[in-house]
Structures are given as structure tokens and as C-alpha cells.
Amino acid sequence: MIGDDAAERRALLAIGPIDLSPASIDLAPDLNQSDRARVDHFLARASADATLRAYRSDWRLFTTWCDTRGYASLPASPIVTAAFLSELARDGSTHSNGRPLSKSSIGRRLAAIVFAHRAAELEPPTVQAGAAALDRVMRGIRNAKRSDRPAKKRPADSDVLRDMVRHITGSALIDYRDRALLSIGMMGAFRRSELVAIDIADVAEDPRGLLVTIPFSKGDQEGKGQSVAVLDGRRMEPVRHYRAWLEVAGITEGPVFRRLTPHGRLTEKPVSPQTVALVVKARAAAAGYDPALFSGHSLRAGFLTEAGRHGANLFKMKEHSRHKSLEMLSEYVRDQEAFRNHAGEGFA
Fold first, then answer.
1. Among the residues of 30-130, which ranges form H helices?
2. Are 125 and 117 in contact (CB under 8 A)?
3. Domain boundaries, the chain
4. What is the CATH number of domain 5-143?
């Protein structure tokens, strides 16, 4: 990359793995070790783990793009940043899936660039002289019409989820783990990052199901903690699959959902969010569904879709899914409401 070496190092440290060392932040030299450690702890929690991982990936893409063209990435000028973002939005541009990037993803790329500049104590391109051009480019991207909107991933609703679990007929560790992961993931409407972070100490059994405490998540970046009630039932049976997995794996403490070695042996490390997506796709394929239609988010979307289908109270859905606003839940309910009490019901 081209730019100030010290600033560059600080930026990379700040958006790398969540381990903000004192060297990455200019703390007062007279702070003692205990005070430094406390400040570092809360600096590290300023953004959610998943957000920092995304920023790190976005920043690498930007610096690589700049390197290939001989542009400075730190600091980056507004016009260079605009050129990068407009290429992502241009029809025919290529990236991971060969399609123009979505507007929200382009916005996140810009947020990562701004984050890196602020971490390096440099003016981000959004406030530099000439920032008006970047602002106009972003408005143009937001206003552009897309004729190639990517297909939405299919939710793993109760019927799909039951099919997926029923087709897991083996008795290997991975089979027990996947049955528990799928049923709890769907019934808890968990985000992938929340699901893989569940620890034995976070789960309490109740006559009606499981109470899972989420200490920190995307919707709770202050770390207040949220409790999720995973309702048991005869169809999804999350409690039975949870107990069976812990018993056969011999897990009494630590992460609930563990990585397995290529030979099927249990490890002490939790599965990754990417593994959740792979499990969903693999088990959907085994049940006869097109795996390309599913993602790790399908479990969370499946619960909300099914709840909307059965007329669940919107506020209860928001409470369970831990969304910040009702508007974010509207898409899960809108399609179901379109056919409820339809004007043509009496003569169709």
C-alpha cells in the first residue's frame, strides 16, 4: 500500500482481529499497565466482532485495488474512493459472485474506508476537500435502478427444517451436532454469530424449552445481554437434539457447537459462522432442496417467516429476534399478509 507506514500499521491493527494492543492507540505514556488493559478492553468492544471482520476484509479489497492502480489508499482521496465504489456498482463489474455489489454492501465498503482512516488518525475521504464529488457519486449509486436484483435466499421454515433434520439419519458426531445446530438455530432465530458463540454456561433448561443468554451481539453492542427462549415442541424438538448432542459428545462446559476434525473427532473450538452456512446448504441438498437457495441466514428467516405465517404478534416477533425496529421485520410479514383476508377469496 502507498501511504504513511506508521498510520497504515495503526489502521491495520485496529481493523484486524479484535486484539487492539496499546501500540495501536496513542495512550498517555503515564498510564499504568492495569489502566491500559482496561482502556484496551473497551476499545476492542467498540464494534461487534462481525463488523470488524467485515471491515478488515473490505479494507484489504480497497488497498489491493489501489495497489494495482498506483493510488494511495491511506490517505485516500475522495475521487479515488469514488472510483473504487463506482466500479463495484457498475453493471458488469466483477467481484466474488460476478455481479454488481448491492447498495448496502457498497455503503459498508465506504464505512470500512472511513473507519481505517479514523483509526490511523487521518481525515477520511468523506470530509476532505473534494468530498462533494464522492457524496454525489454515492447519491448516484443509491438512486441507480437495478435490473439484476439477486434472488432472496429461501427461509428454512418449519416444513423445510423438519425435512432437513429428518434426512440426517446417521449416528456420527457430526449428525448429532447438525441436528441440534439446525433446530436451535431456527427456533432461536439466532444470527450465525450468536449461534456459534453459545456456551454451556449460557443455556438454562426450562420445562418449556431452553433459555439462552446472548452476552453480546449485533443488536446489543453495549453488551447488556439478552435472553432468548427456545420453545420446545413435537415438530422441531430442539431440546431433545440439544441433549442428545451434549451427551454423545461428552460436552459439559465451553462452546456448545464445536468444530470436528476431518476424521470426525471433537475439538474444543467453536464452529465458525461460515460453517453454519455450509451445514444449512449441505443438509438442504441432502433433503432434496437446491442448496444455492439457502444460506446461514435461512434459519433465522425461517423462524420469522413461520411466525408471520401463523399470525404471531409483531412485537413478540421483534422481542424474540432482537431486531431494533419493527420495520426490519415487515418483509417477513408482508408476503403472508398479502393472501390473508384477500379481496378475491369469496370468488377465486
1. 33-44, 49-69, 78-89, 103-119
2. yes
3. 5-143, 158-337
4. 1.10.150.130
**Which stretch, 34-38, 186-190, 225-229, has highest mean pLDDT?**
186-190
End-to-end CA, the chain: 64
Task: Tell me whether residue 345 is exposed, middle or buried, using C-beta atoms within 10 angstroms of its C-beta: 0 to 12, 13 to 18, 19 or more.
Answer: exposed
- Cα–Cα distance for residue pair 212/190, rounded to 1 Å: 10
CA–CA separation, 321 and 210 (whole Å): 15
* Amino acid (1-letter code) at residue 238: P
CATH topology of domain 158-337: hpI Integrase; Chain A (1.10.443)
Please enumerate in sequence order all residues whose Cβ is within 8 A of that of 306, keeping only pairs 6 or more positions apart, or say none. Answer: 155, 157, 158
For residue 205, the Cα-to-chain-centroid distance in whole angstroms is 27
**Radius of gyration in angstroms for the set of CA atoms belonging to the chain, rounded to a whole number:** 23
Tens-place pLDDT, residues 73-104? 888 999 999 999 988 887 534 444 445 677 88
What predicted TM-score, i.e. pTM, was given to this entire model?
0.59
